[in-house]
From TrEMBL:
Species: Tetraodon nigroviridis
Limits of the Jacalin-type lectin domain: 21-157
Keyword line: Lectin, Signal
Pfam families assigned to the protein according to its UniProt record, in alphabetical order: Jacalin
Signal peptide from the UniProt entry: 1-16
UniProt-recorded name of the protein: Jacalin-type lectin domain-containing protein
GO-annotated molecular function: carbohydrate binding
Superkingdom of the organism of origin: Eukaryota
Entries under InterPro entries matching the protein: Jacalin-like_lectin_dom, Jacalin-like_lectin_dom_sf, PolyBind_ProtTraffic
Amino acid sequence: MLSLLLLLALCSSALADGATYSFSPSVGSGTGTSYSLSGTGKITAVRVYEAANAYISGIQLRFGGIWTNLIGRKLGSAMDLELRDDEHIHQISGKYHPSNYIYQLIFYTSAGRSLIVGQPIQNSFNMYTARKNEQLIILSGRFNSAGITAIAAHWGSPDVDYGNVTTSS
């Protein structure tokens, strides 16, 4: 809860400066430990781990050249998407089960590329920017010792510093 309040305070100060911000609500069971993956600057890469032919077990974002802490766990091989200088994430889709895990994540970029990890089973979700000038700036949700149980997307202006906070509580 404290990490969510910190996140809201950071976003509120950015909004006061005229920056835009929008939020795609969480999908998933909502059980486990909360997380927020954020950093300074734009997201330059995404790394996702999948339990073999099952659910999403871990996720990381890279801001500039700095990777966030791993949320969840390393299980299986990592699937990475390196973003180009002029590219950003503008949509996330996937599949989730309402009582346990995120089963699939698809990250779509402004250059028409995508990263698809996981199994196309269970309930579908789709998250995207509310305004044309926004991009993915923060991922949040919940995880447990086996994997990612919930995910939400935060969208904002690429030129606004939303802080350098990677927390789990």
